[in-house]
Amino acid sequence: MSRPIYLDYNATTPVDPAVLDAMLPYFTEQFGNPSSAHAYGWAADEAVKQAREQLGALLGARPDALTFTSGATEAANLAIRGTAAAYRGKKDHVVTVATEHKAVLDPVRSLEAEGYRVTVLGVQPDGRIDLDVLRDALTDTTLLVAVMWANNETGVIQPVPEIAEIVRERGALFMTDATQAVGKIPVDVAHADLLICSGHKVYGPKGVGALYRSRRQPRVRLEPEITGGGQEDGLRSGTLNVPGIVGLGKAAEVAGARLDEDAARLAALRDRLEAALLDRIDGVRVNGSTEHRLPNTANLVFPGTHGKLLPAIRGVAASVGSSCRTKSARPSHVLTALGLSDDDAFDTLRLSLGRFTTEDEIGRAADEIVTAVARLRAEPIPA
Length: 383
Prior knowledge:
Largest sheet: 7 strands, mixed
Number of strands: 12
């Protein structure tokens, strides 16, 4: 039995062969602990330093401004809760957006439960925030504004440089979840005070991510969430995941070398897939901006499929929302924030392409989806 066509790269990516090759020695002969004061530890420490430089080069960041974590979720918690702890008693207002990943929304809500004031901005029908609404939301007590660079479900890209300028003018800190953007479009930490990313979204391994913390003046202060050893400049204690960190560094290096090439190829394939579905299926609509979005992502609603489309396309691996919530019985909070009805949200597919997607797969995926939609629309409407 052949494996399904994989069109869920926003959920996770396969490890690039060059990344795996770079990691393998650090499971075997180069197994040292970077904290150890001998040759094995020194070799591991050098590997971590190199990875820091590789990731820094992709992000335009000083290597010493990067903290390695277990992934983007931990990085988001460190950025949000760590900032709140460091500035406790000085400012008590946090602003975020309704379409953020739960890795951001849940820590923000935890601060609200502790007495912080929280403003959750809505989005326009295209999924982007209104900059005037953002301006009006900021106050002298605003500590942090968290807006993701690119949405994981729709691929919609926010106007990050403009957001950063507005936030900084009011003396607040700006954090961006760049997990989906890194490696797909140019990302520069000059537009953020705090930025998070993850290895497994950029053809690196799972279980590793990073937090950028600005060291410009004024330098961003954080309180650690994990203590017990003082690693990572005291911000994230625990023995470093050397193979994972090496993998993230190599993945960043590979992504930087082929960023433009991959973006152009994936945008062409995405447009071909989208055009085929829009042309061959009545009533299909694209969710979110088609002008400001990631080159690999298509999010479409297929009305009349009764929420059954995903299981009906067994030959295509896709998703109906965030990979972290697809088993939920609730509609996507991202899509409802865009104004979709619950029915339309359940009738939506996220199709995300990647480095190893082929033209042949695009044609076969389109055929499978067209056939499945026709079959579902011919079925009696559920009572």
